[in-house]
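Let us begin with a simple case.
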Amino acid sequence: MRRNLPPLKSLVALESVIRHKSVTKAADELFVTHGAISKHIASVEDWIGLPLFAKKRRSMQPTEAALKLAEAANKAWTLIADSVDAARAEEEPTVLNVVCPATFSMRWLIPRVWDFSAKHPRISVLIRQTHTGDKWLETPFDVAIRSAGPIPARYASNCFLREELALLVSPRAVSKPGAMIADMHGIKLLRAMTRPGELEAWLKAAGAPGGAVASAQAFPHFYIALEAALAGAGALICPLETVRDLLERGDLIEPWPRIRIPGPDHEAIYDPGTAQARAAETFSDWLIGVAREAARATAS
């Protein structure tokens, strides 16, 4: 039910006078004249039918009623301001800055992030790609996706994906496209310098001579090595999770599907003490869910 109140401008003036203990300071704060403040106070006094100040020689002493009225007005302004802030927060999306390794970003995250945006329209995801050697802790972020290295204690981390590595090759590099390869004879090996040790580990699992690594053509980044493999330049150790679409389309084939080795874990890292922690946790939970769904789809 609506109740009659004194003019709000007059209540604002009254609250300011009592807070500053000065008519002059209240006039300066509200950008009005000294006389305007006096008129506002008189308006409230007429409204409630009581004097609000005991006039003394050098100051105006607020009555108990004036103090209570000013306190109530101050609480009202605070409540209104909080409500306005909340309304603005509902209208303005939360911006979530995500840093992610370049290849994983391009081949796994970006093709799927539309799903997160559709499910959480109030969270706007901005993805910044990083490269091996970048000092990711010095980059402003709300969520960092990492697959190697220590994590400072203040961060929360969730493992959402475990890589499985296989040796893949383009049908172009095979003398008879579509045919299975009996051995590795005649296939050139490729390797990415940003993923050290993976080719050696796979060759060991396959029982192949480790010396083949020395003749493998090296590329500075995995995404460059992947393009070389797609062009038919040779065979490359790849994380199956990030190239699944290339296998399904036949752009790459897996000649030795029984020989696979575990790769690194991917973790979502965020600081639980920041203002974006809730959105970061939501994004982390989404990563876990979408990775699980992708694994189930592959298994079926």
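The second case is a distinct protein. As before, the sequence precedes its structure tokens.
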Amino acid sequence: MRNLRKNIPSPKALIAFEAAARHQNFTAAAEELLITQAAVTYQIQKLEQGLGTALFTRSHRRIDLTWAGERLLSAVSHGLGHIAEAAYQIRKASEGRTLTVAANGAVSFYWLRERALNFQIENPGVGLRLMTGEQDDIENPGSGIDLAIRHGSGDWPGLEASLLFDEVAVPVCSPDYLARNGPFNQPADLKKARLLQLEPLSPDWITWEAWFSLRSVEYDRPQPPETVTFNSYPILLEAAIAGQGIALGGLNVIATVLKEGRLVQMDDQPHHTGLGYYLVQAVNKPRGEASVGFAKFLVASL
């Protein structure tokens, strides 16, 4: 590393070379860089002299890369791209005034939405963008996601994860459904109810089969056309709120709905799955003021 200055050509020459190679034209490169064609020619000649080999074969209307030129272009493009991306991320973090947060549909709708609005009221200078989806892409530097709330074990390479709350599964239904179809005094009593089915959102997602098994109750999942299966957790919970059946709900995710009385808990022994909901961020991404502030706000709201 001590010999970088000696071994790496002039940055001006490398930038001129990259533009000329990309356009295959010195004039177009000069126009992009806002310099003269003579200046581009000079930088490339200086680069070729320093490397001791030609980088282009020149004809009247175009230029083509030599083998050495192609090898250098690959390295220069890769290196300049990384520098540009790092500069963008650092600049964005230092500005720190716009924050993109990703979460799945249920967490966004039942848990995060109100907290996000309250944070923005207290921090009017910070813009919030909420992205909803069952899978986030925060590991990808180009995703634009600053923070994500992710369900799982908390072990994701390249991510720093802080537990927000444990996953606790419990059967829930509307007070009206319970009054019309109850009581349900034992776990086995739920087999006679209309159980709202959800397609597993991940391999470790708890299902009715798993819940009954934990209660030592045999259960055969009904098959179409005897049942309706949802692939959206919020829609399934809204069906339960509307009195259409019993759903497996995440106790911490729907705490507000339970407190408001729109759903009631039907089991006094909720199941702790061993998983949780974590606030995650990329390890190698700079922390902006807004990102740090929002993370503290969420933890304080628990």
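Residues 67-95 form the longest helix (29 residues). The first strand starts at residue 56 and ends at 58.
Keep these points in mind for the review questions at the end of the chapter.
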